[in-house]
Amino acid sequence: MLDKGKISGLQMAMLLYPAIMATFFLTLPSSTAYYARNDMWMAGILSAFFGVLVIYIATKLHELFPGETIIQQSEHIIGVLPGKVIGILFFFYSIHVAGLITRMYAEFVTGQFFFKTPLLLIIALMVLLASIAVRGGIEVMARCAVIFTPIFIFPLLLLLLLFPDLELHNIFPVLSRGILPVLQATALPQAWVSELFFISFFLPSLNSPAKGRKWGNITLAAVLLSIIYVNLITLFLLGPDAANKTYPILVTFRYISVNGIFENLESLLLAMWIFGNFIKICVFLYVAVVSFTQILRLSDYRPVVFPMGILAIVLSFWGIPDASVLGEYIRYVGPFEIPAVMLLIPLMLLLIALMRRSGTAKK
Amino acid sequence: MKIGIKFCILLSLLVFLEGCWDRTELNDLALVTAMSFDKGEHNEIITTVQIVIPQNQGSGGASGGVSGGAPHKTTIRSGTGVNISDSLSKLQQKTPRKLFWGQCKIFIFSEDIAKAGIRDEFDFLARHPQPRERANIFVSKGKAAQALELFPPIENSSSEVLQKLTDFKIGYKVTLQELSKMLKGEAGAAAIPIVLILPKAESAEPFQTIPYVMGTALFKKDKMISQISGKTTHGVKWILNEVDEFTVTFEVAGNEGLVSLKPVKAKVKLLPQIVDGKWKMKIKVKATGSLIQNGTEMDSTNPGLLTKMEKAFGQDIKLRIEQALIEVQQKNKTDILGFAEAFHRKFPQQWEKNKERWDELFPGVEVSIDVAASILRSGLINAPGGIPEDEVVAK
Lengths: 363, 395
What we know:
Chain B: It is a lipid-anchor. The complex is a heterodimer of chains A (363) and B (395). Chain A is mainly alpha-helical and 363 residues long. Helix content of chain A is 74%, strand content 1%. Chain A has a single domain (9-356), classed as Up-down Bundle (Amino acid/polyamine transporter I). The longest helix of chain A has 40 residues, at 323-362. With 395 residues, chain B is an alpha/beta fold. The A-B interface holds A 111-112, 116, 169, 172-173, 176-177, 237-241, 244, 251, 254-255, 257, 260, 263-264 and B 22, 102, 129, 132-134, 167, 177, 180-181, 184-186, 341, 344-346, 348-349, 352.
C-alpha cells in the first residue's frame, strides 16, 4: 500500500456506512415505492444477499492476495495488460461516480436550501475539502468519519418523533401484487449495497485484516437496517404518496412537529447530508486516487489528489444537464452499472483466481 | 514567509465566514402568516397574503394611544395572475420586502376555486420548496381573502386564530400532506374544513372579529362537490376514529332533560367484509365518557340507571354515525370515510378487480354499527344537583 496509515475495523465501517447511505437514502423511498408501493420496505431485505456476496468476494480476494487492492490483484490474476484494463475501468467508474454524487449532493442543496448559490461553488468547496482530507491520508479520513458518521446517523433517530402521525396500517395489504414488484424495487438498493466492494481498497490498511469480513458484514447490517427503517417511516407517513416525492425524507423531516415548538428540522437534514456526503465523496475520491496511482505504479499518491478533484468537478457537470437526467441515471443506469463493476467483474476475477490456484496445486 | 501566507489565508476567512455578502435581515423580509386564493373576474387567480407588521407586534395596548384601539398587527396584500406563481410574482412587485414563507401555515381556497378544481394550485403547493407539508388547508365560503383581512381582538392575527382552533381537534383538520395523500389515494375523494367569519360583536371595530371553522367541503378528485354541516362532520370524525375530547349530549328515553358527557373518547374500527359478492362494512365503536351535566332526575350512582344512560349514550353515537352516513355515503356518494383503503387492505384481490367501479359500489356498501359505550365517572356530585333529595329517581 502507498499509504502507510492503519485504520481499525470500526473506522472502516464508519467510512463505508455514509459512503453507501449518503445521497442514496434521500431518494431511496420514492424509487422503491415507485415499483413496490406499500411493500417497499421489503426491498432492503432482499438486497442483503448482494451485500454478503460482494463482501465475501472482496475478503476472499484479499485472503488470496494479502495487502493488495483489486487493482493489483487483477494484474496478478489475469496478467498485466488485461489487469490494467480492469484497473482503468475501476478508476473511471470511481471518478465518474465521485462526480455524480457530488452533483446529487449539490442539486439537493441548491434546489432546497441555497437557491441563489451557484452550483459550481457548492461542488468546488466540497471537493476541495474532500481532496484535503484524502491528501491527508487514510488515517485522517478515518478520524473524520469517526466524528462525522455519528452526526450523520443521529438525526435519523429524530424521525421517531413522527410517531403520532404514523399510520401503521399503511403497510397492508402485504404482497398483494406478488413478489415481482418487490424484486423490481430491489434493483436500486442492491446496486448501492454492492458498493460495499470498496472494502477491497481499505482491507490492506486494516490493522487486523482478518476482521475485515466481520466489519464489512456489520456495515452491511447497519445499512440494511437503515434502509428498512427509512422506508418504513416514509411508508407510514406518506402512504400512497411516497412514490411521488422527489425527496421523501425531506418531507418526513419537515413534518416533524412536537407541540409546535420543536419543528422545521430540515436544516438538521441539510447538516447531516453535508457531513455524510463529505465522507462519501472522500471515499470515492480516495478510491479513484489509489486506483490511478496503482495502475501507473507511482511512488506517491499525494500529487494526484488535487488534479483528481478537478476531474471530479468536471465530471459532475459532463453529461448531466439537469435533474431529470440525473434521476434517469439513478433509476435506469445505476442498477446495472454499479453491480457490473462492483459484483460481476470481481466475481469473475475470484473464480479465475480460484481455478488457477487449484490448477497449480494439482501440478 | 510561510507564516505570512497562513496569516493571509486566516484573514480572508474573516471576510467569507461571516456570510455577510448575501445576508437577509429581518427587516428585509415580509413574514407571511397565511395565504389565500380567490378567483378573479377573468378566471385569474388572486393570491392574497397576510403579512406581519413587525413594529406593532407585542406593543400591546400601551402604545396604542391613537383613538381607534390597538394598532393592527397584520396587513394583507394581493396579486393577480394567470396562476399562483404568476400572481405571486405580481404580488412581490407590490411588496418592498422579500416574501418569507417560513411561518406560513394556513392556506385558504375560495369556494369557487375549490368547485373549479384545485389540481393546479395544489401542484404548486406540493412542488414549491417553501410551503410546509404541515400547513393547514381550508376552503372559505365567499371570498377567501376576507378571512385574512380580519383583526382578531385577542390573538395577533386571524391565521393564528385558525391555527389554534384546529389544534383543538374539534373540527376536521387537513394538512397539506394529508390532502396530498387523499388526492393520491384509492377513494378519489377528499375533505377540507370550511372557514366562516364570525359575526362581529356590536361594540367591536369594523373587521374586529375572527374566522372560525365549521363544516367540511367534500371533494371528488380535485373538485368540490358539496359541503356537510358541522354536526355531520362530527359524525364523520367518529367513523374516522378521530374522536378526541368531544362533548356528547343526549336524551335518555323515558326521562325529561338531557345528559352531557365530556371528555368522550373512542376507539373506532372499520371491519370490511365481502359476503357472497356483497360489500359490507362493520363499524365497531368503543366509547367512554365522563358525566359533566345531568339534567334528568336519575341518580347516576345507581348502576341500573347508569346502564340505562350508557345505553342511551351508545344509541346517540349510533345515530350520529348513521346521519353522517346518510349525508356522505347516500347523498354525496363521496368516500372520505376511509372505506376504500379498508377494503383495499383486507381484500386486495377483489379490490384490484373492482376499484374502477368504486364510485358505484360505495353508496351500496351495507354498513352495520356496533357500539359499546360506557360512562366511567360521574363528576363531583352523586345525585342530580339542584333538586331536593326526595325528587331524585334512585331506581
